[in-house]
Amino acid sequence: MSIMQYNGGSVIAMVGKDCVAIASDLRLGVQSLSISSNFEKIFPVTDRLYIGLPGLASDVTTLREQFRYRVNMYTIKEEREIEPQAFAQLVSSTLYEKRFGPYFIEPVIAGMQKTPSGSYAPFIAATDLIGCLNFAKDFVVAGTASEKLFGVAEGLWEPDLEAEDLFETISQTLLNAVDRDAFSGWGAIVHVITKDKIVILSSSAFISPGLGLAS
């Protein structure tokens, strides 16, 4: 078994129309033994930027604190919030520094990038465990259910999805993919990010219609 599969878990990010979403399962396991069903894999960076960290659980905690420190240092030095594009480069360089003894994490980044005109555009990216960046205009995936996520997302994703439709699409993609993966599952959490707000919904909300994203 690969060390990347030891604790399980999967993350996906998707682009919509003036919005972006990132979602993960909630399982923490030791190979096929489930330990917890509320293990966080998605963390806020700024008000409009989130990072998902699927992989080895101990490295999730280490990298979360590493990124928090470096983002705080950037904010102090530059006197402004870090933008998603700059944060993606920071993630890449942080991982590449440890390329000879890498962190066993494949980060997924999702946020709203400020444009020169002052508006916001959706931004997603992912890296491998030594920091090679993958930018996309539709979706990016990582974790033990990656192949299933790719397959389902290819069939469900459409361009210019509104926030409500994007939530439905990313939720169905994640839930259907982790149902076919023994190392992911046990619930899910979705973050839908727009220029004005962030809506966070856990698996307990998926059973109820009328999610209030338009309010």
TrEMBL record:
Q: Which InterPro entries match?
A: Ntn_hydrolases_N (IPR029055), Proteasome_beta_3 (IPR033811), Proteasome_bsu_CS (IPR016050), Proteasome_sua/b (IPR001353), Proteasome_suB-type (IPR023333)
Q: Name one GO cellular component term.
A: proteasome core complex, beta-subunit complex
| Protein keywords | Cytoplasm, Nucleus, Proteasome
What family does the entry list? Answer: Belongs to the peptidase T1B family.
Functional summary from the UniProt entry: Component of the proteasome, a multicatalytic proteinase complex which is characterized by its ability to cleave peptides with Arg, Phe, Tyr, Leu, and Glu adjacent to the leaving group at neutral or slightly basic pH. The proteasome has an ATP-dependent proteolytic activity.
Name of the featured protein: Proteasome subunit beta
Subcellular location per the Swiss-Prot or TrEMBL entry: Cytoplasm; Nucleus
One GO term under biological process is: proteasome-mediated ubiquitin-dependent protein catabolic process
On subunit structure and binding partners, the annotation says: Component of the proteasome complex. The 26S proteasome consists of a 20S proteasome core and two 19S regulatory subunits. The 20S proteasome core is composed of 28 subunits that are arranged in four stacked rings, resulting in a barrel-shaped structure. The two end rings are each formed by seven alpha subunits, and the two central rings are each formed by seven beta subunits. The catalytic chamber with the active sites is on the inside of the barrel.
Q: Which organism is it from?
A: Hermanssonia centrifuga
* Major localization class: cytoplasm
